[in-house]
């Protein structure tokens, strides 16, 4: 499962000013990330604003992304929802060509019990033609996938190969690390805590800020994975302010502001999300300009 070690990027979906998918911008972004040294890309996760895309748009984005990636890095498809039967049908119908795994967030809004979460993922595992990564993000879904449920799923379904863990609860993370079966991947789903999670045994990150700063992010993560925590420390600290700014008015509006400044794609988001305020945008632009200069100096 080394293909999911390192830095994955929960890629944004670029839109034109009229709200239509910007495929040129998406191509620019994919190439920028690959050139930036990331290990894999996650298409249409939460950061990709998947909740606002129609099924037809999702199909086109999945296919386009696979075509552009063309095997250069590993590729994960985000397929999730709070209607288990519908998610299963989407997974059955999904064209797996070019994809290496499915990332599926725990059901949002319904607030299922742990048994409900287990049964949801059981249905996914029994119908998926690709390996499955769980995704626990209680700040968005309204419910937590407990350590016990994560370990239960990991032990009972061999095709559930890991979890993107974004609870921020280190007591829970410690328990998962201790009790999980060997080979089950724990991946940070929260940029600010990737460094300490790798110190505990996580195998990398699925990053948001890496959309804008793939080189800085992937370099820092690789140092962590090589146990060079002292060397990784500066990169970790350099990203703190930028990361905070990217989330202060919601994601992915913040990182799209940075991508616009970098000339990769526009900053349009779909309602109910809105672009960041001018005040926050100015701070993001200043921060990303400074980080871009640091990276250029490092390359030179």
UniProtKB/TrEMBL annotation:
Enzyme Commission number(s): 4.3.3.7
GO CC terms of this entry: cytosol
GO biological process: diaminopimelate biosynthetic process; lysine biosynthetic process via diaminopimelate
UniProt pathway: Amino-acid biosynthesis; L-lysine biosynthesis via DAP pathway; (S)-tetrahydrodipicolinate from L-aspartate: step 3/4
Pfam families named in the record: DHDPS
Primary location: cytoplasm
Record keywords, A-Z: Amino-acid biosynthesis, Cytoplasm, Diaminopimelate biosynthesis, Lyase, Lysine biosynthesis, Schiff base
Keyword Plastid found: no
Subunit structure: Homotetramer; dimer of dimers.
Family: Belongs to the DapA family.
Entry protein name: 4-hydroxy-tetrahydrodipicolinate synthase
Organism: Mucilaginibacter corticis
């Amino acid at each position: 499962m080394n293909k999911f070690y390192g830095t994955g990027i929960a890629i944004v979906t670029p839109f034109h000013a009229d709200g239509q998918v910007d495929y040129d911008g998406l191509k620019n972004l994919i190439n920028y990330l690959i050139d930036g040294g990331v290990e894999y890309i996650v298409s249409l996760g939460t950061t990709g604003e998947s909740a606002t895309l129609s099924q037809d748009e999702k199909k086109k984005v999945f296919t386009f992304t696979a075509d552009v990636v063309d095997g250069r890095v590993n590729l994960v498809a985000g397929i999730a929802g709070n209607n288990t039967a519908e998610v299963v049908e989407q997974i059955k119908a999904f064209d797996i060509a070019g994809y290496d795994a499915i990332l599926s967030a725990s059901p949002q809004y319904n607030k299922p019990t742990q048994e409900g979460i287990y049964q949801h993922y059981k249905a996914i595992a029994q119908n998926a033609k690709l390996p499955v990564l769980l995704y626990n993000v209680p700040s968005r879904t309204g419910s937590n996938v407990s350590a016990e449920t994560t370990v239960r799923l990991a032990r009972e379904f061999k095709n559930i190969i890991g979890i993107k863990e974004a609870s921020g609860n280190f007591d829970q993370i410690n328990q998962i690390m201790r009790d999980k079966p060997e080979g089950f991947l724990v991946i940070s789903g929260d940029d600010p805590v990737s460094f300490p999670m790798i110190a505990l045994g996580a195998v990398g990150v699925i990053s948001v800020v890496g959309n804008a700063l793939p080189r800085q992010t992937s370099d820092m993560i690789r140092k962590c994975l090589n146990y060079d925590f002292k060397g990784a420390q500066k990169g970790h600290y350099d990203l703190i302010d930028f990361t905070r700014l990217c989330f202060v008015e919601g994601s992915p509006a913040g990182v799209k502001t940075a991508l616009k400044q970098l000339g990769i794609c526009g900053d349009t988001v779909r309602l109910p999300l809105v672009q960041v305020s001018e005040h926050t945008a100015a701070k993001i632009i200043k921060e990303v300009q400074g980080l871009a200069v640091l990276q250029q100096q490092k390359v030179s």
